[in-house]
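hey so u asked for the seq, here:
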Amino acid sequence: MWIELPALWIVVLNCLGIPAAHLLNGWWSTLLPARFFPPESMLYRSRSWERGGEVYIRLFRVRGWKHLLPDAAPWFRGFAKGQLASRDPSYLRTFVVETCRGEFSHWVQIAVIAAFIAWNPWPANLVIIAYSLLANLPCIVNLRHTRARMRRVLNR
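ran it, structure tokens below
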């Protein structure tokens, strides 16, 4: 714990701050221009070990649980990624960019929520880190899997 706070303040900061971190970051991410999320950039490009998204199907069984994940983008008038609305190439290219936006949002959420360890004592700081990862990594896995699928459709 780097910042000493009374227990009540720690509880209040965690209970209000963590949901706010999710929501404010999601909202902020929808405001950023699409040019900030180039699909072929270092962060978003496909890796050879991903094998076109197959690793997410075989190792993580993403198809079995992806329907349980919320898509908060429509809450902020963002691009809905829950269903494929068209096979039009321009729509699919937009979809790919929006998976990059979503991935960016979740990486930022991991960092912001992990920063809450500054005022959480041991072992609560471990719970904060675990929550940060467990709440966001499944979304990142799903977005990377979806982006690989969209790329395959676009390449046909």
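The chain has a mean pLDDT of 91. The chain is about 55% helix and 0% strand.
lmk if thats what u needed
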